[in-house]
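Thread: Modeling a multi-component assembly for a lab meeting

Hi all, long-time lurker, first post. My supervisor asked me to bring a structural picture of a complex we are working on to next week's group meeting, and I have zero experience with this. I have the sequence lines for every component (657 residues in total). Could someone generate the structure of the whole assembly? Inputs are pasted exactly as I received them:
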Amino acid sequence: MKPTNLNTDDFKYFVEQFDDIRVLKYKLPGFENLSPRQKEYIYYLSQASLAGRDILWDQNFRHNLLIRKTLEAIIGNYTGDKETTDYKAFMLYAKKVFFANGIHHHYSNDKFKPGFNAGFFAKLINGTKYKDLPLSKGQSSDQLIAFLTPILCDERLFPRKVEQKSGADMIAESASNFYEGVKQKEVEEFYAGKTIPDDTHPISIGLNSRVVKVNGKVTEEVYKSGGKYGAAINKIIQWLEKAINAAEIEKQKDELKILIEYYKTGDLKKWDEYNIAWVRNTSPMVDYINGFIEIYEDPLGMKATWEAIVDYTDLEATKRTKIITDNAQWFEDHSPIHAKYRKEKVKGVAARVINIAMLGGDCYPASPLGINLPNANWIRKEVGSKSVTLANITNAYDVASQGNGFLEEFASDQAEVERIKKYGSISDALHTDLHECVGHASGKLAEGTDPNALKNYASPLEEARADLFALYYMMDKKLLELGLLPNEDAAKASYDAYLRNGLLTQIVRIKPGKDIEEAHMRNRSAISHWVYEKGKTENVVEFFKYGGKSHVKINDYRKLRTLFGELLKEVQRVKSEGDYEAGKSIIEDFGVKVDHKLHAEILSRYEKLNLAPYTGFVNPKLIPVFNTIGEITDVEVEYVNDYLDQMLEYGRDYSFL
Ligand SMILES: [Zn+2]
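Re: Modeling a multi-component assembly
Sure thing. I ran the full set together rather than chain by chain. Output:
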């Protein structure tokens, strides 16, 4: 089988870089092979994904839409000099705001500091025709200036989008727009009475509403047709209704009807009903996400931001995951763990590999790499969940990162650089597949072991178990036999990348003086340092300096594989027996501490590369082709090369609030 992810194409992924942001575009592989009906279905769903854009802007901060419309008006109509330093600073500010869907950084949550002063902002507005400005009735441009200037320029006002510091009134301190005029305590009291005790199928209370005070009384404004955000929701519904007619299977039609019902009523029981229908639709060729889903932006962790994607199955890559799940029992039987902790009957987890056709709401422009939904625990337990990895987005990251100097700076030699360039994408994808489809599914607990015995170390250890399973098999000739890897060099590329990251480069994400906190990072650090230490006498992996710079080199790949196997055996034992102390020592002794001297060196080398730590994407344009009676007969893909153009176009065509 031909690996799908080999980077042999000359598609230009890079679009633009500014501030701490890199913008890429993603490719739609195999889109042309979809049936006309599938493409039509994708088209309607993609419009439904874009139609809700304004909702997210308003959720992030209540003045975001006015600010965006003002920025758009200035960019489109300002008649003054556009070559000045001030104007360039304004454009940089605008691009950052467009990227973040608001005036707060999408990741750090801090309000952006404009690189221009209040006087220049007034000049911009005064240099834009009155009729082009987003003025409310009777408002003068001076009033608009007076209103917006402090919001943009005063650092003390709305400094954080989400504030979760303990001790603070998180609602009062957060600029996000899920609450207005209410205190945290009032909100907690409002919802306290709403939970039904011992409800085994609880709805996600408060998920789709804003809480405000009306005549002194705390009330909910529900997001629904005819309610809060009704105008945008009506547009979403219109496109979903069209999608029903283009859906391929009855299940999809039924599911969409429930989603529309939910958008019309705001009824959270409908939302659960919809999620159950969506999960049961296990292997659609085209699928989507559309709704109020993730709760990270709400300081109280209750209210969801609006997000949407449209995707289609990557058939080649899904063949790869199918080969893996079909052979799940073989992998289990040959795993280097203790025989008594192997599963007699293992069922691989069927993860779909998908390609994104459109990103919307909170998934745009910064996209996730994998998605596992729904979020309601009882649905996950009783009905299941859908897990997808986003192939074309991951591939765009991989390919765009080549040639940015990062690899050349940190790889041990030219051969390693070549191996990664040739095989990095396929070995990366295969590692993820093995990790997700068989790694997590492998092994069993000893009888009587408390599944929660590992407590705070459970999650890094679980990630380590799945990673080690993948690493161990990466070097197995079985993968060559199954046609999953082209040759052993591809496996070596996987080991090179893993240790380089775990021993050297992943700490660029950590501030000087800090330890490693995040579970995935602790896992990678623990595995890498454990095999390094255990293989030290035989020099399996070595640190060396070249031109005063630290590098890592693998001297014995076979022996390294054996070490991965030994650690896998131990981590599985720890999990199976619930051995908290042993698990703790693997993570604490190998995964947490950072060598401060090395850290300083890595940070300074990284800084010199001038790389943007955050990435986002422009969407392609999907253009329907109509026949003489107005039916869609085909959909064409046009790739977009201008980030700002797309932002302005979306502002023009999908602004419904
Ligand atoms: Zn995992």
